[in-house]
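**Protein fold record**
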Amino acid sequence: MVIYRVRPGDSIYQLSRLYGIPAQKIIEDNQIRNTQQLVVGQALVLMTDRVQHTVGSGQSLYSIAALYGVSADQLLEANPQITDPALLQPGQVLTIPVTSQKLGSMLVNGYVFPSVNQGTLERTLPFLSFVSIFSYMAKPDGSLSSIEDEPVITAARAKGTAPFMVVTNMRAEGGFSSENANAILSSPEIQDVLLNNIITVLQEKNYYGLNLDFEYIYSHDRENYNSFLRKVTAKLRQMGYSVSTSLAPKNSAQQTGLLYEAHDYPVHSGLADYIILMTYEWGYTYGPARPVAPLNLVEAVIRYAVSVIPPEKILMGIPNYGYDWTLPFVRGTAAHPLTNPGAVELASEVGARILFDEEAQSPHFSYYSYNGKKHAVWFEDARSIRAKLELVHRYGLAGVSYWTANSYFSQNWLVLSSLFDIKKAL
């Protein structure tokens, strides 16, 4: 696998000849809509194990090896025609072996809505260990909303993917409710009602496990949430179910704010089988333009997390989307969400050049709309995905969790499956 950054003048057909890959495969692997014009700065995944390199003036065997991250011995092995390594000639064509050594194996979770397109689901399930279906909403009396989740559960089990029931403290009209969480968590009786209702769904729907995603909990409900989690895990583990919890991205135990204070990393670590860290939404719908999941800030969360949670329990969140903000930012206005392929398509339509922020390890671009307004777009591409997956390897995490897998992003799955083997739960 090669991740190639498009340069001025590049075309699909030129890259096809250079890398020996059918043009149609490049188009499909990168979900390219406008095949006549690539976007300068765009990242392309090229699925090949060899590259042809034309020796330039002043290049040596060792400088070429360093350029591609291979050893001089590997270069010589791939080019038996080289009789004297010290006498490479400009214009000479060398075969560069692309190393594809995997970093190991990992667990992969993907959140989906029950409305997920069936074709997208079928293409995605082979890459997932778990699919978490979002969501059953817990009401203040302990009852649950209903969702049409049977088609996703059936499809998941057919592909060896374990389905997780997701329970949230969301309102029917949208958004997480601190009040709903408080009504449940402050009453042991309502907790028992909710747990019994959860067990009924788990059994009737043939779920593999439960994901608890309670957010924006009042700080004074922290111990109540811990107690509820103890009750849930004791009962469900006895029944053979797995339990995961979703936690806000904290970088210290003392982090303040409604999103963070009631999420007790050490307690959840001791109780749940897996912890999903929601390491995204630094750039969010109603906030200013910035990367959705900047690597430097994601890593700060991971550093704290592994100090209080065994790494083999952690699934690091990865966003499968981007945003288009209108500038200057005005509080109360909303950014427009984009799929990652959709962001590149937009860049093509407006004639933008895609840039890459090295600190955040995130692609971005700007443009002016027809009404003269400036826009900023941040999203994910093969480079940012690879950087995040290498972070998982560096810290020895269990794997990753995508929010969401409702849209298919082929670059992501190509990069992930090139770097890791995916563990199946069933």
Q: What stands out?
A: The CA atoms of residues 4 and 44 lie 5 Å apart. The first helix runs from residue 12 to 19.
